[in-house]
Amino acid sequence: MKDLILVSHGNLSKELKKSVEMIMSPQNKIHTLSLKEGESPDEFGSEFKELTSNLDDYVVFADLLGGTPCNVVTNIILSNNLNIDIFTGMNMPMIVGYINSAITDQSPQPVQSGKDGITYVNEIVK
């Protein structure tokens, strides 16, 4: 499985990793990076570069399209001509689905997994 990097505003990425590990056991190939309040985009970018400096292949999951974590990471990846997948709208079904795909040797479909996990429960239980 490729390494997964979860990037977010605040501690969302760290807490999402913890929640995934409650279901899937500890995941040493999931890394998190949180944009702290008051942290500049340049500082966040430096942390991302440091985190990825020893990774061969990885996928990035960001919390919000157009947000600083996503924008900074996208700019770094594009400016270095890296062939790295970046997904936004990160949620638990997306990450669990990606890991399950790797375990079962299936092609990951993180966008579909994320969408499939969004359901209006009241419609189901009627």
From TrEMBL:
GO CC terms, sorted: cytoplasm; membrane
Lineage of the species this protein comes from: Bacteria, Bacillati, Bacillota, Bacilli, Lactobacillales
A molecular function GO annotation: kinase activity
Pfam families membership: EIIA-man
Biological process annotations from GO: phosphoenolpyruvate-dependent sugar phosphotransferase system
UniProt key word Lipid metabolism: no
Protein name in UniProt: PTS system, mannose/fructose-specific IIA component
Entry-linked InterPro entries: Bacterial_PTS_sugar_comp, PTS_EIIA_man-typ, PTS_EIIA_man-typ_sf, PTS_IIA_man
Superkingdom per UniProt: Bacteria
